[in-house]
């Protein structure tokens, strides 16, 4: 299958087989995102999806994990997702788990019965773009949920057996609000306890709608030193949960990355951040233009 657009999936899915089921993102209104702005959203036909499954099966492909792309595959109808799941298990009998990105609103559109049906069909990990623990930030960034809605829908998906994984962004609250955002985001995660956390620290291109907010003076970006300090405070505040959690944090502007398993690697990650913070000069903004 010819893949359209930029591949977007968490680093924990690097060993999964990525099966495109749509082009672009059905929501596509987040101010900070440029991944899908150049694409016209459309669902791929079941024939296209099946042809890709056949192609991989013919070369003896039988992955244990399949990741459905692109932007928010969980937004597809339950009927469509169940059909895709049936075909995956037919062509890949060794498949044990189906993962994909989702929005809080995607979950809200599915009943408890549908969530259980999807679990029975092999759907497991859902990656939600939580982004921030502050409601005013979520509203400004055009996210499709409030924190209370996120709490409610995450409780529903977990009750059905689905696993909550989180995307979030240090720097998203803007200059001077890093510690505040870290504390509220940590509070959110301590309550919801994701199994995987991916921090795509704020990195903007001039094509992002948020870039225009910067030019108009409506958003003041934090520098990378503040983003690093925010990440450190977040890791410091995350409590031991019922399970270990994989953490992966990216700072693309300075090519810095911190990752590990919480709580086991917390002190090592904080020490790495302390070392980088000590070297980082204030003023390097995490955007280009």
TrEMBL record:
The keyword Secreted does not apply. The keyword Iron-sulfur applies. It comes from the Bacteria. GO terms for molecular function: catalytic activity; iron-sulfur cluster binding; metal ion binding. InterPro entries: BchE-like, Elp3/MiaA/NifB-like_rSAM, rSAM, rSAM_horseshoe, rSAM_sf. Residues 11-244 form the Radical SAM core domain. Its cofactor is [4Fe-4S] cluster. Coiled coil: none annotated. Keywords: Iron, Iron-sulfur, Metal-binding, S-adenosyl-L-methionine. PROSITE patterns: RADICAL_SAM. PANTHER family: ANAEROBIC MAGNESIUM-PROTOPORPHYRIN IX MONOMETHYL ESTER CYCLASE-RELATED, RADICAL SAM SUPERFAMILY PROTEIN. This is Radical SAM protein. It comes from Sellimonas intestinalis.
């Amino acid at each position: 299958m010819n893949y359209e657009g930029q591949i977007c999936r968490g680093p924990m899915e690097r060993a999964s087989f990525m099966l495109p089921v749509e082009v672009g993102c059905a929501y596509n209104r987040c101010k900070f995102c440029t991944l899908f702005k150049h694409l016209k959203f459309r669902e791929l036909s079941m024939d296209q999806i099946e042809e890709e499954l056949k192609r991989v099966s013919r070369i003896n492909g039988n992955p244990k994990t399949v990741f459905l792309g692109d932007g928010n595959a969980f937004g597809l109808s339950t009927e469509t997702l169940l059909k895709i799941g049936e075909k995956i298990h037919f062509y890949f009998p060794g498949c044990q788990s189906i993962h994909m990105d989702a929005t809080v609103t995607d979950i809200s559109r599915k009943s408890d019965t549908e969530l259980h049906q999807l679990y029975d069909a092999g759907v497991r990990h859902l990656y939600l773009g939580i982004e921030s623990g502050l409601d005013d930030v979520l509203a400004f960034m055009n996210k499709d949920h409030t924190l209370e809605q996120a709490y409610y829908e995450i409780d529903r998906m977990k009750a059905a057996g689905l696993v909550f994984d989180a995307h979030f962004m240090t720097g998203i609250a803007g200059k001077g609000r890093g510690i505040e955002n870290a504390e509220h985001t940590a509070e959110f995660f301590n309550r919801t306890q994701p199994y995987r956390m991916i921090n795509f620290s704020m990195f903007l291109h001039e094509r992002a709608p948020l870039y225009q907010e910067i030019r108009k003076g409506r958003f003041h970006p934090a520098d990378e030193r503040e983003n690093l300090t925010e990440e450190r405070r977040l890791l410091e505040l995350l409590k031991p949960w019922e399970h270990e959690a994989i953490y992966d944090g990216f700072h693309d502007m300075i090519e810095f990355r911190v990752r590990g398993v919480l709580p086991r690697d917390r002190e090592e990650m904080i020490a790495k951040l302390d070392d980088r913070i000590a070297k980082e000069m204030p003023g390097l903004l995490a955007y280009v233009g």
